[in-house]
Amino acid sequence: MASGFGYTGGRTRCFPYWQEFQKCYASADRPEECVAPKEDYLECLHHHKEIARAKEVKAHFIHQQASLAERSRKEAQTAATGAGAQVGVGLIGGEQAK
């Protein structure tokens, strides 16, 4: 992959990052100076940070939907039990409208 040739013969998507990393590594006095280009190149290859961010967004969305469903369920249950506001229609117990 670092050769710069992809499967179709053209440049790979990460080749510019590889060149940047290689240029930094060749001119650096210490390898620690090239941590950022190395991370950019590895992220381009494997998408670790992108995948982690997508998982975080998905987990937040699922949590938000679950709390919304729980809140709706509680509201529906409260409405169904009456919560102290029972309404009689006069059909049971001899209640007659006057």
Q: Which key terms come to mind for this protein?
A:
mainly alpha, rod-shaped, 3 helices, 0% strand, 98 residues, 60% helix
Describe the structure.
The model has no long low-confidence stretch (mean pLDDT 85). Helices cover 60% and strands 0% of the residues. It is an all-alpha fold and 98 residues long. Helix 1 (15-27) packs antiparallel against helix 2 (35-46). The radius of gyration is 32 Å and the shape is rod-shaped. The chain has helices spanning 15-27, 35-46, 48-81.
Nutshell version of this structure?
By secondary structure, the chain is mostly helical. It has helices at residues 15-27, 35-46, 48-81.
- What is the multimeric organization of the chains shown? single chain
Ranges where pLDDT stays below 50 over 5 or more residues in a row are none
Helix content: 55-70%
Please report the total strand number as a whole number.
Answer: 0
